[in-house]
Each structure stands twice: as C-alpha cells, then as structure tokens.
Amino acid sequence: MSRMMSFPVRAATLRNLYHPPRRQFSASAVHSSKVSILGAAGGIGQSLALLMKLNPLVSELALYDIKGGPGVAADLSHINTQSKVVGYGSSASGLAHTLNGSDMILIPAGVPRKPGMTRDDLFSSNASIVRDLAKAIADAAPNANILVITNPVNSTVPIVAEVLKSQGVYNSKRLFGVNTLDAIRASRFISQIKGTDPANENVPIIGGHSGITIIPLVSHSGHPDISGTTLDELIQHIQFAGDEVVQAKDGAGSATLAMALAGARFADSLLRANHGQKGIIETAFVDNPLYKDQGIDFFASMVELGPDGMQKIHQVDKLSPYEENMLKRALPDLKKNINRGVDFVKETA
Ligand SMILES: NC(=O)c1ccc[n+]([C@@H]2O[C@H](COP(=O)([O-])OP(=O)(O)OC[C@H]3O[C@@H](n4cnc5c(N)ncnc54)[C@H](O)[C@@H]3O)[C@@H](O)[C@H]2O)c1
Ligand SMILES: O=C(O)C[C@H](O)C(=O)O
Fold this sequence. Notes:
By secondary structure, this protein is α/β, with parallel strands linked by helices.
C-alpha cells in the first residue's frame, strides 16, 4: 500500500520485561506510577495484578472488581515489593477511589467466550460494562493511559473513545486496545516452525483483534521465506489461537495466563516509555489515520510509545500480495465492529 511507510521492528522482548534499564530514569521517577486494574479479580485480572505488583515502575496498584477486589489486594499486598496495593469492591466510590490519580488503567472487566461464541457475541454483555467504566474514567482520571483488554476489542476501544469524546476529555494518544497477545503468539508459533528462540522473533501485527482482522506480517518478520501451506497454517494458527484456548478450556473461559503476560508486557513498555525510555514499539489497536478515508477510525499498527502515550504510528512500506489480500478481507469486518461500538454509545448515552 502506497500510504504505508517503513518502520523498524523493535518490539520489547519478554527478556527485558521486568528488567527495565533503571539507569535511564531519575531516582525519583523509578517508583512513581499509579496503575489501576478494573476487573482485577478475574482470570486475567489476578495474574495481571500479580505481574504489575512485581513491576518496579509501579508505586501504587489499585484493584477494582464488582466481586473480590479487596481480597486480591490483601493477598498481593504481602508480596515484598515496594508498591502499595489497595482494593475495592462494587461501589461508585470504590471505583472513584481506584481511578483517582491513576496514570494507567487496565480494563479486563467483562465476560469471556465459551465454545461456539465469537468475540462479537460478547458485545451484548461487555459493551455496557466498558461504557460505564469509561464514564467513571472520564470523571475521575481523564488524563490516564487507558489499556482496553475486554472483548470485543475492535468494538470496546471505539466505545471508550466515544464516551470520552462525549465528556470532552478524549485524548487519542492515550487509548490503546491491547492486542499484544497476538504478537506474543506469533513470535512463539514462528519460533516453533524455525526452531529459534521466541524472544528473538518479532512478527508485526496490524488490523484488529479477532479472527481474520488479525493480520500478522510474516513478510516483515525475520522469516519472509515462509510460504505455501506453512504460511497458511501459521496465519490460521495466529488468527484463531484464541478459539483454540476457548475449546480447550471447555466452558471455563478463554486465555487468561498468556493474556496477563501480554497485558503486563504492554503496560511495562508504556510505563518505560512514559518514564523516558526511547524506541519502544508495540502493536496496539489505536485511533489511526490510515483508513479513516474508508470510515475506519481504529486500526492496529506498530506504535512507538513515549512520555505522552502514543508518540508515532509506524506504518509498513510494502505488504506482500498475501498480506494485501488479508487486509482486503479484514477491513469490512473491522468497519462493522467499530461502527457497532460507536452506534452503541450514541444510542445508549
Ligand atoms: N485483548 C485480548 O487479547 C484478550 C485476551 C483474553 C481475554 N480477553 C477478554 O478479557 C475479558 C476478561 O476475561 P477473563 O478471562 O479475565 O474473565 P473473568 O470472567 O475471569 O474475569 C472478568 C472479571 O471482570 C469482573 N467484572 C465484571 N463486570 C465488572 C464491572 N462492571 N466492573 C469491574 N469488574 C467487573 C468480574 O467480576 C470478573 O472478576 C473478556 O472479555 C475476554 O474476552 C481479551
Ligand atoms: O479468544 C478470546 O476470546 C480471548 C482473546 O481475545 C484471545 O485472543 O485469546
């Protein structure tokens, strides 16, 4: 696509996840971020909270869940890292206490899939949860970075944007749909084909976070030679890996552990960029100019993170014909998912 420009592939690796190069921060900046998790007692929420408790860039961890927030906080508060942990249960004041002063808010609140469901089938349960949490964020922490994990991400991110717009506090640079799990899976799966260390593999992910809207750019990975049936199977594996986990859990939910790691990695990358580390690039589903002329306001790209959130979107200079075809198939679905979220807020505000 001619509109795309080149980008350097330099996503944070798992290897440096909890070893941020501290010497790049001033002493006072090292333990300085309040991070909140909404839905903190869930499958993702608990493991994510554990990983954030281990992150030296977090000074305060605030945990909110309609069920079990204080219990998870009490448990984590005994871990011997410096951050303070507070937890709240279901109440407007608990949510406000959680959000007040937050630099970063992670949202895994909501219902996961069961076998036979698409992510879009979660819309009827999760859209109103995310809308209401976004309203509370607009009131209590309008300047925070917001990381949306709740599915369907292709719709829940536009929901948050629309709510913040309606409250006059939308900052497109601080809203991220978390699709890091797709990048983690892609690096793992490609390493299994090539017999390499997944920590050294980066496959840029663009598009969205569901089925065919997930577009892995193998031609821009370290293995552009992968082709034919091997490529078909790899793409299918990445795009439908979530379904694989849903099937295997057999009614007990979807990916939680790998997702918690993915969320923690994205949060850590953003915290490090917020504290001044340069050159950190992750995939994220963001407000993106690339296809706005086709009515598609959100699109996952490789995004450079900075002190104020999203610093730069790195577009891709040349897609292979295979990838062009994936993109062509993905755009109509993506548009439908985004519009569903936008319309929901307009109709129910
Ligand atoms: N972005 C991704 O890559 C990705 C990956 C995996 C799962 N997910 C999604 O993340 C979401 C959570 O998955 P899970 O497995 O942790 O589910 P879960 O059911 O284990 O946990 C969800 C938690 O949210 C809480 N909750 C519900 N409504 C709430 C509200 N209004 N405020 C605060 N908390 C609320 C519940 O009490 C529960 O503890 C699902 O929508 C799932 O599809 C996204
Ligand atoms: O597949 C799901 O429903 C959860 C998540 O989006 C995933 O990719 O694992």
